[in-house]
Amino acid sequence: MTTPTLTSRSASSNDPAVRPIATPAMLKARLALSDDVRIRIEQQRQQIRNILNGEDSRLLVITGPCSIHDEAAALDYGQRLMALNEQLGDRLLIVIRAYVEKPRTHIGWKGLAYDPERDGSGDMQAGLERSRKVMLALAEMGLPLATEALNPLVMMYLDDLISWTAIGARTTESQIHREMVSHLGMPTGLKNGTDGSMMTAINAMVAARHSHHTLGVDCHGQMAMLTTPGNPDTHIVLRGGNGMTNYDAASVAAAQQQLQEADCNVGVLVDCSHANACKQHRRQTAIALDVVGQRLAGNDRILGVMLESFINEGNQKMSANLVYGQSITDPCLGWDQTEALLREMHQQLAEIRP
Fold it and tell me: Quick one: which of 235, 215, 242 has its CA closest to 227?
């Protein structure tokens, strides 16, 4: 994939602020997908497209840690989720969150891709390599992967591994990100604005489905003029905002009405965390079950839910002695809570649709 990027300050090759790293083509060659995994990822993308287009009645469930900071714990979670997926896959299409970039309101740890040692050293060469390694291992398990695309250049190192991408509330309005989505080869969810408005995401959907001419970089690091093909597989993600939630039936119906008027896909994915949960991670359970209830009441254009979930509940501050399997960013549901929730969702869907 080739994507647009930002300009940098003029600097010589001896500038200590400039640290050359491997190109996307080099890293992808060193950590390559097998043919079987490549084919499976494309099949998983198509399954998500089928849900988006109403051709697959399963509920899409995107779940996993807020951000990956410990690869071993992420793989442990992935193994648990894979085993659960084998039991629930007839009603739920489960996708694991593999988020290696963390959006920040001001400053803070930016994610595995940027600072893998979590010490401020900012070794992006190691970060990108470790991010690709853990994603590759998760993909080899058989799980579809989801991520949030923040820096278009980072996405160039990882895009072939991803089945579903999110564009966050802070970046949905960005022209660069809309052009990036136009070039992505997988379904992409665009979150409503942080103020709760729908039009930012709707405008982004319209922009992303069209072709664009833009300045970018190819996989070998060469500056290039890009012509993006347009992405027809976008949808909105409701995450609340401005102190208000928008997962309830009335809010979902209002969002779908706006989407229909803009001639956009009316499929809606509900983010059960963030503003919808009012920063109370345990509320995700009730929100997810509310969304399932809306599906059962007849709104079959609700695509599914997003959850923040890890092995151990809650979150923790950065330290030298981290609790295994607990988030260092947003608080998450624990594994037992997650498993119980997914089983209950599956049971409710199975009772109505035998």
Answer: 215
d(CA 317, CA 329): 8
Proportion of the chain in helix, strand, coil states, percent, rounded to 5: 40, 15, 45
Rounded distance, CA 22 to CA 125, Å?
7
Contact 204, 170 (CB under 8 A): no
pTM, full prediction: 0.94
Token pair belonging to 35: 């043919």
> Residues 142, 154: contact at Cβ < 8 Å?
no
Q: Find where tokens 């853990």 sit.
A: 134
Q: CA nearest 112: which of 151, 168, 169?
A: 151
The radius of gyration computed from the CA coordinates of the chain, to the nearest angstrom, equals 19
Q: Which of 108, 114, 113 is nearest to 135 (CA)?
A: 113
**Residue type at 193?**
G
Q: Pairing state of beta strands 234-238 and 223-227?
A: unpaired
Beta-sheet pairing, 213-217 with 188-191: unpaired
One digit per residue, the tens of pLDDT, for the chain of length 354 reads 554 444 444 444 577 788 899 999 999 999 999 999 999 999 999 999 999 999 999 999 999 999 999 999 999 999 999 999 999 999 999 999 999 998 877 788 999 999 999 999 999 999 999 999 999 999 999 999 999 999 999 999 999 999 999 999 999 999 999 999 999 999 999 999 999 999 999 999 999 999 999 999 999 999 999 999 999 999 999 999 998 999 999 999 999 999 999 999 999 999 999 999 999 999 999 999 999 999 999 999 999 999 999 999 999 999 999 999 999 999 999 999 999 999 999 999 998 754
Lookup result for tokens 């405008």 = 203
Give the strand order in the sheet containing 213-217: 3-4, 213-217, 223-227
Residue type, 270: V
